[in-house]
Design goal:
Length: 88
């Protein structure tokens, strides 16, 4: 894939993530009012401490590294196929 398309997909995914977070934040007061009216209020959860966030992040590192490695191998194989003429 052309480098420009890869960059465009990266920024599109990033914009989508920001859009989702923004919509959640904007809709939060409405959601609270509707839940209160319906009687299905959510329990307030304490914010995780810095240590808890770090532990959670560290638990996800091996999984992310594995995915990144697999992606790198796929890309390398694709490049080799293109170099060889993709006749295989």
């Amino acid at each position: 894939m052309n480098r420009h398309f890869e960059d465009a997909w990266y920024y599109l995914r990033r914009a989508g993530g920001h859009l989702a977070v923004g919509l959640r934040e904007e809709a939060a007061p409405l959601e609270r009012r509707v839940r209160k009216a319906v009687g299905r209020e959510r329990a307030v959860e304490p914010a995780p401490t810095g240590r808890q966030r770090l532990e959670t992040e560290l638990r996800n590192v091996p999984r992310r590294a594995e995915r990144g490695g697999k992606k790198a191998v796929r890309r390398a194989r694709g490049r080799v196929k293109r170099y060889r003429g993709a006749a295989e």
